[in-house]
């Protein structure tokens, strides 16, 4: 898939059959919130996730959830990854960083995420990834990703540690990556 010449997909493939799915970015952010919600039992999550299928629900529930995870990761069952490999360390949260994400889209692209009627999940993710390093959200992500053990200068390490403490995400279980969502539902 080449996003410069191919349309963003509107379906997933399960057992060789194509199933239409929700594609708006808001729905996929909600899916991630659902998956990360420890108060919802896993079996209930699995059932709720089937709401992302717009027509028919595949018979194979495990394959259906895996397919949603692949779509979320912008990797629709292909051998090569389309999305950049993400670190297992969480560097942003759609919940906690909503202000910085929203303002970056306004500043850089002139897109009001509140008023836009529709944006495909893959378009949203592509634009999010492409935000300049100068935006507040990218700065936060950069500082959160720094491994202090790699910073040799003591004063610089202290400075970065203070910034990391000030912008730290709330502690919770490690966030599943897009790639893990499908597989971990049945583990």
Q: How is this fold's topology laid out?
A:
Elements: E1 11-14, E2 17-20, H1 25-36, H2 42-49, H3 61-72, H4 98-109, H5 121-129, H6 136-145, H7 154-167, H8 178-184
Helix pairs in contact: 1-5, 3-8
What does this structure look like?
It is a single chain. The longest helix has 14 residues, at 154-167. 45% of the residues lie in helices and 4% in strands. It has helices at residues 25-36, 42-49, 61-72, 98-109, 121-129, 136-145, 154-167, 178-184; strands at 11-14, 17-20. It folds into two domains: 11-84, no CATH class; 98-167, no CATH class. A hairpin with a 2-residue loop joins strand 1 (11-14) and strand 2 (17-20). It is globular, with a radius of gyration of 18 Å. The two termini are 29 Å apart. It contains eight helices and two strands, in the order ββαααααααα. The protein is mainly alpha-helical and 187 residues long. It has a two-stranded antiparallel ribbon.
Beta strands, count: 2
Share of residues in strands: under 5%
pLDDT average, as an integer?
88
Q: Give the total of domains.
A: 2
Radius of gyration computed on alpha carbons? 18 Å
Major β-sheet annotation: 2 strands, antiparallel
Question: Which consecutive residue ranges, at least 5 long each, have pLDDT under 50?
Answer: 79-85
Helix proportion of residues, in percent?
40-55%
C-alpha end-to-end distance = 29 Å
With strands numbered from the N-terminus, the spatial order across the biggest sheet is 1-2
């Amino acid at each position: 898939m080449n996003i410069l010449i191919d349309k963003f997909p509107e379906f997933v493939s399960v057992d060789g059959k194509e199933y239409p799915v929700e594609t708006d970015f808001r729905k996929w952010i909600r899916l991630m919130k659902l998956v990360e919600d420890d108060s919802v039992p896993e079996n209930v999550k699995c059932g709720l996730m089937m709401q992302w299928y717009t027509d028919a629900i595949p018979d194979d529930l495990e394959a259906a959830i895996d397919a949603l995870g692949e779509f979320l990761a912008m990797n629709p069952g292909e051998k090569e990854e389309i999305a950049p490999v993400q670190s297992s360390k969480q560097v942003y949260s759609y919940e906690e960083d909503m202000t910085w994400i929203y303002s970056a889209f306004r500043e850089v692209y002139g897109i009001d995420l509140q008023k836009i009627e529709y944006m495909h999940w893959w378009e949203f993710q592509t634009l999010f990834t492409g935000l300049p390093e100068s935006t507040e959200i990218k700065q936060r992500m950069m500082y959160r990703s720094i491994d202090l053990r790699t910073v040799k200068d003591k004063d610089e390490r202290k400075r970065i540690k203070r910034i990391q403490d000030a912008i730290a995400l709330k502690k919770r279980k490690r966030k599943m990556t897009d790639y893990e969502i499908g597989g971990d539902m049945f583990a």
